[in-house]
Amino acid sequence: MPIGFAAPAFLWTLLAVPVVIALHFIRKQRKQKRVSASFLWQDAKRIAQRRRRFSLSWLLAAQLAFVTLAGLALAQPYWRNDAAVARVFIIDASASMVARDSDGVRLEKAIDQAQTLLRRSGQVAIIRAGRDASVWQAPTNNSNEARDALADIQAGDASSDLLRATDLARSLLPEAELHIFSDSSSDSVPVGANVTQHNVALDGQNLGISAFDLRYEQVFVSVVSSHPRPQEVVLEIYQVNPDNPEASGQMLVSSSLLVPARGQTNVAFPLTSEQGLYRARLQVPTWDALSLDDEAYAGSRNLTILLRPRSQILERALRAIPNVSVRTVQRLPGSLEPYDIITLIGDVPETLSPGRYLLFPDAQSEPNYETIADWDGSDPLLRFADLSGVVVATSGSSNSSGSSGSAFVPSLEWQPIAESQSLVPVIAKTSNLEESTDAAVEAVAFSFHPTQNDMVRRVAFPIVMTNIIERYRSESRLPLGTILPASSGAGRVLEPGLYTLDGRLYSASLLDANESRLDVAQTVTTTDNQANNQADTETNTSDVTNTATSEQRLEVASILVLIALLLLMGEWWLWSRGRTTASA
Question: pLDDT grade, residue 411 (50/70/90)?
């Protein structure tokens, strides 16, 4: 049962012990005696000075014991019953954890605090809370193994799923203490039994790009600030050469922006063409705490769409989309690699070659017309599309797994996003279309022929077509925290930049206003305040660490105070008795 101190700073009072000894040695009382001759005593005095040794008296022992016990009592000692406590450490790996405060990088502070708790832990598991929660270290009793795992954690994900991480932690060690090390505000951190938050945010201020997009031959940029005063920052936009992405590229725009205090500014600049890759960069001041949002990438390229067979309705809708070229054929070519999207009308094979598809069935000889009754307006493919009252020809079957002449290929897993009154899927997409992976086959299928519906006469049709094409076009953007295939050798995307996978160029950017608006403990205005706030934060961290443990404490400060009072009374009694004896 090792001993601990709640206020170890008071241990400095033990330096009074040698002071008491020195005073007692200097002021030692001399007794006077009558002698017949003094020359012998003078010789004895000289010999005694050369051989003087320290002698402990009861009075001095009582004084020393009192000073020692008083100092220990002020330090508030306690006995710790350090039972092997199982703990799960949840480390926030979001981009804001890379921010630097006045007392250090937030992730490094979190790891240091976790390693402090690790010294008094039994079985330990570590969860990395990024875009998804993952077991970074399986439950182990080896503290060195857990310490190495903590040191290997890197942050930079576009977000952190702390709720998922908490559920995962409870499934690993149900009875363990959960310690969440994060810079998120307390209202966004899961709470519950045996859950302790260690907030590592302090005073970092930041300017960052929260949006960067190309639309309608314009570039749109949003810049956010967490600084308490308005800030002027220079924004630069470059066109990047895909063949040499490391080069700076050609500067297109350089503009000074005024960002309001803890606010956001939005700007737009004209472009001669949306085709190509673009980089936005901020010239940030030295106090900028986060570098991951100082640079962002966006871009688009010309999409080549193969249409078989020719359909004037589809061809007209597709050609109206910017940066799209359409080639119509009667037969599929031997290789589909040159085409970004393959649009098939009728004669849809049961097995599709790798690629992106837009599928329609054959025209029905006896169509069964129904009205679209339900659709998922929150789905990106149907965004801004009003399908109310749209009449389409359906096959009359509610089974989306496929039938004769159906566009729903049986070998694929379909997710309906629009249904008719009889619950027949009208529009469906493959499930992998929502993932940021380079899937082998991605498809959007319609249950009706382009000529057997009235949707093509409404605004909803070009909107849906544009959404589908833009969804396929946006595959080149990767969110930070994406795990790349092992074959790439790049591991996890933790920094903005351009990445090449399987011959395709992908861009990665943070673009998250919540991460750029750093959570801070409090606003610091002067150097003195900054030092005081840092000291308060360290004290709070120590308090959290102490309260987070399940140690059984036996407080002994009150016992030491009682013993010190008894010794004080004993010292007074010995001193009074000595004076009485000397007087006699």
Answer: confident
Pairwise CA distance, residues 535 & 103, whole Å = 10
pLDDT the model gives residue 6: 63
Average pLDDT over residues 60-70: 74
Q: What is the pTM of this model?
A: 0.58
- What CATH class is the domain 207-300+492-516? mainly beta
Predicted local distance difference test score (pLDDT) of residue 98: 95
User: Residue 104's beta-bridge partner residues?
Assistant: 101
Peptide bond into 333 cis (omega under 30): no
d(CA 94, CA 182): 9
pLDDT tens readout for residues 367-405: 889 999 999 998 989 988 999 999 999 864 444 444 445
CB 469 within 8 A of CB 341: yes
Residue 134, classed as helix, strand or coil, is: strand
CATH architecture for segment(s) 87-204+522-550: 3-Layer(aba) Sandwich (3.40)
Q: 79: how many CB neighbours lie within 10 A of its CB?
A: 15
Question: Which residue, chain included where needed, has tokens 């949006």?
Answer: 211
Return residue ranges of the chain for CATH 2.60.40: 207-300+492-516
Encoding tokens for residue 448? 């009706």
The architecture CATH gives domain 303-477: 3-Layer(aba) Sandwich (3.40)
Give the count of beta carbons closer than 10 Å to the beta carbon of residue 262.
Answer: 15
* Residue showing tokens 């329609």: 360
